[in-house]
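Consider what follows.

. . .
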Amino acid sequence: MSPKVKLSQTWPILLALIFSLSIERYALNTFGWQNDVSWHVVNGLWMVVHHKLQLTNTLTWTAQGMYWSDPEWLWDIIAGALYKLDGWTFVSLFGTIIFAALLALITYNFIKERKTGSWEAIILIIFATSLAPFAEMRPQLASYLFFLLALQALQTKSNKYLWFMTLALPLWSNMHGSAVLWACLLVLQLFLNFKDWRKNQYPYLIIVSICLLALRPGGIAPWFDFIFQQTYASNFNTIMEWMSPNFHMLPFLFSLLMLGIGWVVILPKATNRRDKCWLVISTVAGLVASRFLPYALLIAIVLIPKYLPLRRPVPLPFPKKVIKLVPVIWTLFLAVYLTLYAQKPFTFPPENGAALYLSEHHASHIVNRYDWGGTLEWYGLSPMADGRNIWIGFPWWKEYLDMYKGLMPVSNFLERVAPTSEWVCWSPNTPVAWQMDQLKGWHRVYSDDKAEIWERVKGLPPHS
């Protein structure tokens, strides 16, 4: 902490830190076990038990035995090892620790800049609320912390910190593919300081970073897979994120509010071209695809303390001796809060009931929503698809996406692509569900407000 800031003057931002962590903890409990979380843990458990990396697909029935290098193996092993220790409780605790470190670093930035008043506290809470929808126990969580450290390293302009961040790149890269953002930040830094490129370290940092990014299973091939996935003509990202109905939902409105605060605070006062580029480019990227939105929010919260006006500290509303109890209060808060969630670290995902039903009936050859595949795999089932991108280039994957978006009739898909399928698991009140209810040879056997299941009528040939 800067010696210019007294501990008694930091109470608004410290209270905001505690409240912000409670927001993220609640969000982690609500959204933590969704999408790809389950297959990450399943894959990690397999590697922990067998003491080797998973190099073939064993999770889906559409690509059994196919070569697959897990580019996020380090996160999977950590998640699998934590689950083996004490189930979902330790996995959830790991996510809480990451969020605590993230928010503590951001709070330190405010304190270092002597911006610790009530307005700064409100901004921190708005940031935590805007980040809450992304609180899933996926590798992205670690990437947010790495990205924050990367921004900090570039802010310090210290070669020591820049090289430290570069040499730590294999850790980031083997947890999540967003490690390539470090190289992108360095390239932008070099471009903005191109006149002095011979005097700075950026060319060497970029070369070393590119080499270190290749130190992962599959080398650089997964990067090309990711680019191909994002530009694939039949992928789901067919409209810009800002045009999506999701952006009218309250959590995303908080994200827009946070970015708006960043633009109002930073752009009029920023004399640094890099800071302006960071904010503009990240905001555009976040409006194009939601996967980039958390990184835009992190850039905004890192830059805002630099450009907020310095105001008189807020008077302490209680005796100064009380502020010395902050570490004790912080520790007790964490202990009580984490104990409350120890018995139920995550809320079950919406497809959990359907997955249990399929597991009880020993279902096989399941046609499912791709984002439910991880939960089905968690219960020992073999779905058609999950959240991985190993099927890119397969003809059936394009037809699956067409069926998902309603461009191909379900009957055609089941007949041409999945003639051996026995179960269909999908969300209700969707084109797929409506068609399945009318499809001959199939009958609905399970239904709740989140998921429905259809089973092929026994003894009938396909689509009789």
